Amino acid sequence: MQTDKHLISAAHGSLHVELTSYRFGKPGGKKAYIQAALHADEVPAMLCAQKLRARLEELEAQGKVIGEVIVVPAANPIGLAQVINERPFGRFDLSTGINFNRGYPHYFERLKTALEGRLGADAGENVRVIRGLLREYVAEWRPHSDTVTLKKALFQMAIDADVVLDLHCENEAALHLYAGTPLCDAVQPLADLMQASALLYTLGAGGEPFDEACSRLWWDLAAHFGARDPVPPACIAVTVELRGEVSVSHELAARDAEAILQYLAVQGVLDLGAVALPPPSCVPTPLEGSERLDAPH
Ligand SMILES: [Zn+2]
After folding, report:
1. Spacing, Cα 104 to ligand 1 middle (Å)
2. Which of 92, 130, 241, 272 is most open to solvent, judged by the fewest CB atoms within 10 Å of its CB?
């Protein structure tokens, strides 16, 4: 396991904020990126990530990490420091009011132009070319605040991954997942392994959340370039809502972590032998079909 410290604060600032990531395996094969608690005070997500980190250390020692896995167990150190009257406040950046899970760059327009005449019939080669440009674009991102520096650090680790899992929790909820419409088949095994109650899909939720910023550009490019220059949905990015904020237990976190590891094996990131998939736990349903209800009491 390699520990990486990312400096988030501007040089000579009055605050020192650091982000920590853990890297397992090595580059070259399939890559998975897993971050927890982008909204800071999401304890079920952080606990699950800690379990993942411990298990990945064991699996790495056993030579079972055949790809590369990056885990960020506390993705929002800035939000973690935002406490008002003893209550954590991690959803929005207090200095701007912007949701920490919004406003990630969508590079489709830029890629569309840059890729003109550069793609061919080989989908794998197209993915390689697109990822190369994506790494360049994210590296060129010039943050103007610590929050944007944090967003860049997270996005930079995720942008070229095959699997991106963004672990969150709700105030009160059953376990559910959000993913792009073209990813439903690829995400179904994760839903089943995690015994999710819902898999909500959309082509675009709006506001550029983290998962979508990693995945949407692929199907936007596919629609633009068509079948002659195939662009597969190369990044399976999923937002995982690990129940409600008080659904915190070692047992649940260990079970969730184990399900995620099994999914990484399905995706060829880990070698855990044959994974027995449970029967479907839910049928994917459109996010647009969900309805908000106000409780009068
Ligand atoms: Zn969240």
Report:
1. 15
2. 272
The token pair at 105 is 């760059």
Centre of ligand 1 from the C-alpha of residue 22, in Å: 21
CB burial readout 24-35, b (16+ within 10 A) else e: bbeeeebbbbbb
Residue 297 to residues 244, 246, 290, 294: CA-CA distances in angstroms?
Answer: 19, 21, 21, 9
Cα(281) to centroid(ligand 1), Å: 23
Burial of 164: CB neighbours in 10 Å, binned 0-12, 13-18, 19+ = buried
Between the CA of 120 and the centroid of ligand 1 the distance, in Å, is 38
Q: How far is the centre of ligand 1, averaged over its atoms, from the C-alpha of 39 (Å)?
A: 5
62 CA from centroid of ligand 1 (Å):
33
pLDDT of 15 > 90? The answer is no
pLDDT of 10: 82
Instruction: Supply the mean pLDDT for the chain.
Output: 96
Structure tokens at 3: 């520990």
d(CA 293, ligand 1 centre) in Å? 20
Strand partners of residue 29:
27
How many A from CA of 265 to the centre of ligand 1?
A: 26
* Rg of the chain, C-alpha, whole Å: 19
Rounded to whole angstroms, the Cα distance separating 26 from 134 reads 20
Q: Span 37-60, mean pLDDT?
A: 98
* Single pTM value for the model: 0.97
